[in-house]
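Quick one - inputs below.
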Amino acid sequence: MTIKEIAGLAGVSSAAVSRYLNGGYVSEEKKEKISQVIEKTGYRPSAQARILRTKKTRLVGVVVPKISSESISRITDGIGQVLGKEGYQMLLATTDNDPKKEVEYMEIFENYPVDGLLLIATMLTKQHRKILKEAKVPIVVIGQQTDDASCIYHDDYNAAKELGIFVGKKSKKKIAYIGVTREDKAAGAAREDGFLAGLGQEGKTVEEGYRMEAEFTMESGYEKTKALLEKKCDIDIISCATDTIAAGAIEALGKDFLDRRKDIMITGFGDNQFLKAVTGGIPTVHFGYKTSGIKGAQMLIEMIEKEQDIPMQVKLGYQVRHAW
Amino acid sequence: MTIKEIAGLAGVSSAAVSRYLNGGYVSEEKKEKISQVIEKTGYRPSAQARILRTKKTRLVGVVVPKISSESISRITDGIGQVLGKEGYQMLLATTDNDPKKEVEYMEIFENYPVDGLLLIATMLTKQHRKILKEAKVPIVVIGQQTDDASCIYHDDYNAAKELGIFVGKKSKKKIAYIGVTREDKAAGAAREDGFLAGLGQEGKTVEEGYRMEAEFTMESGYEKTKALLEKKCDIDIISCATDTIAAGAIEALGKDFLDRRKDIMITGFGDNQFLKAVTGGIPTVHFGYKTSGIKGAQMLIEMIEKEQDIPMQVKLGYQVRHAW
DNA sequence: TTGTACGCGTTATCAG
DNA sequence: CTGATAACGCGTACAA
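Output:
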């Protein structure tokens, strides 16, 4: 079914049908006729041909490191919700935590082409910077602050600081910190720096040998915690850079250090729902992940439709959650 | 940059450039020239124009109920992995658990058009059936058995039966079951039926008033468990149709029935990693979710590329996991 | 091996 | 208001 055939069946020109479809001038009489034919044939205009003409795909590329993570999937849920409502489709690429692939996909999308790009970032290399700057379509970065594009991110530093103050007040012995690579400026550097600043305010710190660096996985959290507790016996709080790592820490306590379990508090980041339900809630930080997805998508759509690319930086709030 | 401009700069015809791009006859000499021009200009052929001509989008539509669920995001991860490797892009639509939207998106994709469709299904209505049958592109359904399309699903019935036998052997008092809607034939009907069959084999059953129906959420699991335990005092095992519901049950036990916590065992379905780490592992069933995503994507690509649409049904195995 | 010319299904232009 | 007709950028018979 093409627009021409429809035009033929309705006894009008293809232009009239096109106008009918896109809200141009068509007499009531012909409208009626066209609508009937379309109804009967179940005709749908070809998106491809339209795109070729209009250069608008109503497609948004979304690049994520890995979809099976609570925080990322929540962000993605928010994105999908907005995009769907606004009549956009989401082209999703997962990079398996490989920054090289991230760049690769951004290039593919650049050319696909999509109307805009959403990047859920972990690290931003110079490569990323270059693409962000040279991009021909609007881009919104979610999860990291950057001056090279619009971005929406969480206030990791102050959240971590507040948590650090809480931990500093609470601890009577030694405090350990299991972080992630500082190349991730948000989850790595900002959280660690903020946490230490908070501790410092209470006259505490993380001493030499009490700091570990883990991957973004439970297994890694488990391993690092085990290594930590085997060496040190005077820890009463282990703060982790993510709830996933914290879950690994809890696992280690449950499996290998049952005797010390009562004496050690674990804290996390991200307010994982499973963790909260099952443990009754460890001290953690709640970020509005879904909200950041929603806001990010809204920002992007606005940039696309207003056709103005004034970079915007939005910092989202947080809530430190603990029972005491 | 269009193919014509490139042709002009290289002093050849646009056809030559096209052939160069698609591996046709081009003399070494011209190859050299063209490659240089392309290199210099950073030219990329327009995907849209190509699609218009070839009718091949290298796009696969993926329809999921909700991305922020461990099982679904694991499946999606598997899909993304395969698709990326094979040079396909994933067009993702989330339906927010609304079967109406599911149908809607399948229609959109049908026309977009995509080369194939992957549907992670919960319920299959007659509407779904109709689309599955009339579809013009290959479709693979993941997570439900159906005769109307190729599908890949888990052996929910037998897994549940084996778990039922375990529970039947273990229980000394009453057994409760928190299921989900039987409209979901896999997670609803098959698991419940299998579970009851397993119990039956041990001379046990779920008595009147010990059966609840929950949504696919932790909150719902929490509510139903609370309601159940407030009414009944002789339960020693609560089996849940998903690990998410089980997490809600554990939450209820921890918050509201701390005194009975030791005496009640919770079982689940899905082998949620968080749950396993934090609780030390409740009895549950492990399904290869990521595997089903991988297999499903592979099946679909094969159907697309071989251009043969012989429906295939693949049933994946399972592993009942419990410590005793 | 090469280039010309046409067609894919729309939308935009412009004369009626 | 309406209908030809020319693009959009590419692939591919076909003739050379």
